Amino acid sequence: MILKFSGILILLLTLIGCKDSKVKTVESDKAITKSESSCIKKVFEKDSIFGEIRNHASKTISLSETIVNYTQDLKSLDFSNCPKDFKIAFDKHIEAWLDIRTVIDKYPSMHGELHDIFDELEKSKDSIMFKQLLGNIWETWKLVEQSAN
């Protein structure tokens, strides 16, 4: 009888132990989600700051140099706690910014606010390629935003 009772007690304790481990797993999953969310938020905040700097830096330095500085700043961000898909999407976005230099490098003397320069480039002899490359920047940004949700 005592042996039977001990066996039932051990079985119950094992089941309770398993139940508790499931709860802990769910709680740790929530912590990971919060950590990922915090990482994404920090990246977006830094990108906003770097974007503001980028938009005005081209008033004093070439747009190519501005974009190199901007992408280097983005590459320096800590993505270690971000979801993998977010990091991949952001890397593609950075590459899209670097790709637009194939057109921008042809216009080293253009200075001004970034969007004003972009307006001029949309009217340039390289407008078709520029618009495609700019479209890729916007498309990759959509992927970044989608991967953040």
Briefly characterize the structure.
This protein has helices at 2-57, 63-75, 84-99, 101-104, 114-121, 127-147. The protein has 149 residues and is an all-alpha fold. The chain has one domain (35-147).
Protein model, in words:
The chain has one domain. The chain has 149 residues and is mainly alpha-helical. Helices cover 79% and strands 0% of the residues.
SSE blueprint:
Layout: H1 2-57, H2 63-75, H3 84-99, H4 101-104, H5 114-121, H6 127-147
Helix pairs in contact: 1-2, 2-3, 3-6
List keywords for this structure.
disordered N terminus, 149 residues, single chain, mainly alpha, 0% strand, 79% helix, elongated
Report how far apart the termini are: 57 Å
Shape, per Cα inertia axes: elongated
Biggest β-sheet: count, sense, barrel?
Answer: none
Rg for CA atoms: 25 Å
Total of DSSP H or I helical runs spanning 4+ residues: 6
Helix percent reads over 70%
β-strand amount:
under 5%
Uncertain runs are 3-32
Number of strands: 0
For the record, the count of structural domains works out to 1
Class by SSE composition = mainly alpha
Mean pLDDT: 84
Order of helices and strands: HHHHHH
